[in-house]
């Protein structure tokens, strides 16, 4: 099937397919189109949102059958093949030979990619390791000192998930102040950012240094080019009383204020357009969880503001528009916004 025809046929099942990239459409045409047509014949609609208990059991059954067919030892090898470099080629060959894509999604009326992500969440042993022992906590502190905030590297060394090691380190970090930022702390943060940025610009683009020389004002943070990755562990050390993530969040809030210069990006007609764009783009990601969203890419597409600004706007949107949002999953919230609120906003616009 050619690309235009595939997009047209998929639109019956995936309304937002017209907004997807050509490569995504090609993958969906290969993995999903025939499955969707079969489900249609059976009178079954394609689903999104939270996986049901029945679907979880079907995924478990599919994985067990694949293990039996391929002779692969365990689900981790099947779903996280890159963790086993010595067996990688053999596992890949067995997966192709026994139609891994078709088998893993059997009996589940959802896009293949979402089923695959769900299976990985269910069968990742690193997600279910229980409490950290004192020995593990000491190891975590040692690895963080060696590797900074390279949580991917540390997660491999600890055999824990990326999120788990990052969150645990946040918990055990000493000398953290959780109260409101004082003027002194804020000034320390500004000075620390200015210092590391001055050093960075001196190396990369000396002509930009003039914008940093206005030490009595905050005009220098008005430059959008200053919103870029910073060495947060170094900044944390200079601030002294705050954890690196707090420093980053505070800096984002400062920068957001400066970049927008008090303009109401989300006010009036612009506000409606921005909300519509945000809902559409979140829906297109098909993300099951907020952690799967590339917020930097999203914020860049919507208005070139920091990711924290977009995340804050999404939070306000769900709180004000989605009833009982605390009881809903991320995907259910996005689905509700897309199906219920988007038409309202478009009509109002």
TrEMBL record:
Query: Domain Myb-like, which positions?
Result: 124-172, 173-255
Coiled-coil spans in chain? none
Instruction: Report a single Gene Ontology molecular function.
Output: chromatin binding
Entry-linked PROSITE patterns = HTH_MYB (PS51294), MYB_LIKE (PS50090)
The UniProt entry, under SUPFAM superfamilies, shows: Homeodomain-like
Output the GO biological process annotations, alphabetical, semicolon-separated: termination of RNA polymerase I transcription
* CDD domains assigned to the protein according to its UniProt record, in alphabetical order: SANT (cd00167)
Ranges for the HTH myb-type domain?
Answer: 124-161
- Choose one Gene Ontology CC annotation of this protein and give it: nucleolus
Annotated protein name in UniProt? TTF1 factor
Q: Which organism is it from?
A: Donacobius atricapilla
């Amino acid at each position: 099937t050619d690309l235009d025809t595939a997009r047209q046929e998929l639109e019956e099942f995936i309304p937002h397919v017209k907004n997807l990239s050509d490569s995504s459409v090609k993958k969906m045409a290969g993995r999903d189109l025939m499955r969707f047509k079969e489900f249609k014949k059976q009178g079954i609609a394609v689903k999104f949102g939270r996986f049901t208990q029945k679907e979880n059991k079907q995924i478990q059954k599919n994985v067990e059958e694949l293990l039996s067919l391929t002779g692969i030892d365990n689900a981790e090898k099947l779903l996280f093949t890159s963790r086993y470099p010595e067996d990688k080629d053999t596992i890949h060959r067995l997966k192709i030979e026994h139609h891994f894509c078709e088998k893993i999604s059997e009996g589940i009326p959802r896009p293949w990619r979402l089923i695959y992500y769900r299976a990985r969440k269910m069968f990742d042993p690193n997600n279910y390791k229980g409490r950290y022992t004192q020995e593990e906590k000491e190891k975590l502190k040692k690895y963080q000192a060696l590797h900074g905030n390279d949580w991917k590297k540390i997660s491999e060394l600890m055999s824990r998930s990326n999120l788990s090691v990052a969150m645990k380190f946040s918990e055990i970090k000493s000398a953290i102040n959780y109260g409101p930022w004082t003027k002194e702390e804020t000034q320390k943060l500004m000075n620390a950012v200015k210092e590391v940025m001055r050093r960075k610009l001196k190396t990369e683009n000396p002509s930009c240094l003039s914008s940093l020389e206005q030490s009595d004002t905050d005009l220098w943070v008005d430059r959008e080019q200053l919103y870029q990755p910073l060495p947060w562990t170094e900044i944390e050390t200079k601030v002294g009383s705050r954890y690196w993530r707090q420093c980053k969040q505070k800096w984002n809030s400062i920068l957001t204020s400066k970049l927008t210069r008090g303009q109401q990006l989300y006010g009036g007609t612009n506000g409606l357009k921005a909300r519509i764009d945000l809902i559409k783009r979140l829906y297109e990601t098909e993300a099951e969880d907020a952690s799967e969203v590339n917020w930097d890419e999203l914020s860049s597409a919507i208005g070139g503001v920091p990711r924290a600004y977009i995340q804050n706007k999404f939070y306000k949107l769900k709180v004000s528009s989605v009833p009982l949002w605390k009881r809903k999953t991320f995907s259910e919230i996005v689905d509700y916004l897309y199906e219920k609120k988007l038409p309202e906003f478009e009509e109002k616009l």
